[in-house]
Amino acid sequence: MRDMHCHILPGVDDGAADLHESMRMFEAAKRAGITSITCTPHCREPYFDYLPMWKAFRTFEAAVREVDPKFPLQMGFEVNYRMLAELGLGWAERLHFNGSNEFLLELSVGASPTRFGDYERTIFDLQGLGYDVIIAHPERYVAIQRDISLAKELVSMGCKLQASADFIYGGRLAREKRPAIRMMREGLYTYIASDAHNTKHYAYFARAMSKYEALLR
Predict the structure, then answer these.
(1) What is the rounded distance in angstroms from the CA atom of residue 192 to the CA atom of residue 206?
(2) What pTM does this model have?
(3) Mean pLDDT by 10 residues, the chain (217 residues)
């Protein structure tokens, strides 16, 4: 079972503070039934630092290999729309999931519905470059909370939607459970990910998967 969005790398964003915590999270992930991990540090202010993030991945990878030599690991990024606009689409080849064409895109939490036109242009540009666009935690976006037809439009454009497992307890903003469950029931999600910033998020992942995995696309 793959976890395709987590903040497990040591000391690079608001996830694991150091390698010790990274390894505690790794053991928690395995207890939750996860059998492969895509590491996705933030690509947004104030965290993004490309080369140190890759260095952190190599450090984590080496530590994992000592305890579980065959465990599959992949490097990627959770790319904020605003940061991508600042960096330019030329950065996409450095920010997609290494070894695949998947691209994890984070939209702006408080964006109005009119901003979704800007998102659509960026999504089409990424798709035109050959990337499979995954939208991170749409249940957090205020516009989608108010009108899930916007999530349906993203799916109709060919995007895949990823729920962050903390929705099961209300979510980071305490208003994500209801829209997430509705989108689950309407078959809009392709993935549930831990979006783990600490060990307890893997327990959320295990519960969310046990309850909703059958509703994924």
Answers:
(1) 10
(2) 0.97
(3) 98 98 98 98 96 98 98 98 96 98 96 86 97 98 95 97 96 88 98 98 98 96
